[in-house]
Amino acid sequence: DGGITQSPKYLFRKEGQNVTLSCEQNLNHDAMYWYRQDPGQGLRLIYYSQIVNDFQKGDIAEGYSVSREKKESFPLTVTSAQKNPTAFYLCASSMGTGVPNEQFFGPGTRLTVL
Amino acid sequence: AQSVTQLDSQVPVFEEAPVELRCNYSSSVSVYLFWYVQYPNQGLQLLLKYLSGSTLVESINGFEAEFNKSQTSFHLRKPSVHISDTAEYFCAVSDRVGGTYKYIFGTGTRLKVLA
User: Residue B48: closest CA among chain A residues belongs to which residue?
Assistant: First the structure.
């Protein structure tokens, strides 16, 4: 089955800790994205990547970092600099950012800071 | 920059009644529009999309949306809803920024179907 997997499903973090959220896709998509979802605010773009070893900041990149060493993988690190990290994080992919294709989403990771 | 407005944060409706979820976008030369559905604690799933061609697009589960350029709208409709349609619905627009298409999402409409 082709799709996007995210792990873990639930993640708890103490203040001051960095945590890394995993995102893997086997759809052979070039583009990958990270969104943050908060109640009543829709989805906000954190980072996106068009190709391996390249990524761009989205609208709310402060306090986050990413890497894209493999086409299939786009992990997101939530650093201690992120002031309010408790949220639902969604990873998505699409065939490419050069065309207006739909995005395919993973099941999400719910991060809670204790 | 593009923006998307979903005016209704919640829409309650009785089972088998019709429903319309409203979506308006800011104007642009070319727009590509999407509706996604999200069930609790899950990711988003594509419901339907408008890229070009017929302004009326349909999904396999009875939803339809009509692209209206003059009103800059892409409202989602279903003539008869089921309990299983209870979910959150997001409208999105894909806009070209430089050489890249980015996606802007509305704040979502929570549809609650009542028995």
Answer: A102
